[in-house]
Amino acid sequence: MAVATTRSRAGCCVAALVLLACITQVAPAAQEASAPLGPFEVVLDTYVRDGYVYYRALKSDRRRLDEYVNSLAAASVDKSPVNAQIAFWLNAYDALALRTVIDHYPAPRRSTEYPAGSIRQTPGAFERLTHRVAGRMLTLDQIEQTILSKYNDPRLHFAIGRGSVGGGRLRSEIFTAELLEKQLAEVASECVTRAECIQIDNATNTVNASSIFSWNEKEFVAAYADKADELYATRSPIERAILGFVRPKLLQTERDFMEKNTFRLAYRPFDWSLNDLTGRGDR
Q1: How far is CA 254 from CA 89, 216, 232, 248, 259, in A?
Q2: What contacts 134, CB < 8 A, 6 or more positions away?
C-alpha cells in the first residue's frame, strides 16, 4: 500500500507541474488579450465610427480625452524608435484636433468661407492655437508640417483626421509602433475607396484628387513619382506621384481608364465639413 501511495502522490505532483506549465504558457496571452485600454484608445473605440465622431457625447464625457492630452505635455519621445515617435505624433495630433472641436462645440459660424460647425469656424484652430506636447508649444500645423514631415512618409498626411470630412479617415484605434506599417498601408489603400481622396469622373474625363496631395507636393513627388508607369512619363512630377500612389490599389476598370492617359487631373476643394455623427444612433 505504501508503494501505491507514493506512486499516487508522485503522479499528482507530475500532473500539478504539467498544469502549472500550461497556465504559465497561456497566462501572458490571456493577460495581453484582456489588457485594459488606455484613455485615448477608449475614446476612439467608444466615439469614432468609420471616421466620424459623436462629438456631443464626447464633449459630455471628455475626462479620458483630457487625461490623455494632459499627459502629452511631459512626454519624452525623441529617443524612442522611429515608429514609436511617428505613432506618438499621429495620436497626439488626432487627440488635439478632437479636443479643439469639443472645446468649441458647436462652433458658432464666424466665416462664410467654411461650412457651419466646421473646425475652421474656430479662429486659428490649426495655425494659432498652441498645445504643449513633449515639452514644446506647438500648433496642429507645426506638428504636421514640421514634425511629421521630417519622417519623409507622405502617407502620414492621410493618416490624420483634421476634424473634417476631407481629412484622413479617423481610426477607431490608436496608432502603435508595432502595427504602424500595417496601419499606414491600410491608410493608403483606403484612399482610393474614398471620393475625398481620389475620384474618377468618366463623364468629364477627369481624375479629381485631394488637395492633400498638392499641399504636400514635395513629399509625394519624392516618394512616389518614380513609381508611376512609364506611360505617364510626360506628365508633371506631382501627377506621376499621385498615379504612383493610387494606381496599384485601383480596380481594373479604373486602371483601364487611367491607361488611356487622356484624362485631366484636378484638385477637389477640401471638404472642411465637421466629421460629426451627433444625432445618429441616439447620441
Answers
A1: 34, 24, 15, 11, 9
A2: 72, 73, 74, 75, 76, 77, 78, 88
Angstrom distance (rounded) from CA 218 to CA 280: 40
Based on the fold, state whether residues 101 and 163 are members of the same structural domain.
yes
Contact of 111 with 120, CB cutoff 8 Å: yes
For the segment 199-223, what is each residue's pLDDT rounded down to a tens digit?
A: 999 999 999 999 999 999 999 999 9
**Residue 120 lies inside a defined structural domain of this protein:** yes
d(CA 277, CA 256): 36
Q: Are residues 202 and 179 in the same domain?
A: no
pLDDT band at 282 (very low <50, low <70, confident <90, very high): low
Grid coordinates standing for 59? 464633449
- Indicate whether 17 belongs to any domain: no
Give the model confidence (pLDDT) of 222-251 as tens digits. 999 999 999 999 999 999 999 999 999 999
Nearest Cα neighbor of 102 from 272, 273, 270, 274 is: 274
Q: Are residues 186 and 220 in the same domain?
A: no
Whole-number Å distance between alpha carbons of 282 and 257: 43
Is 59 part of any domain?
yes
Query: Is residue 138 domain-shared with residue 211, that is, in the same domain?
Result: no
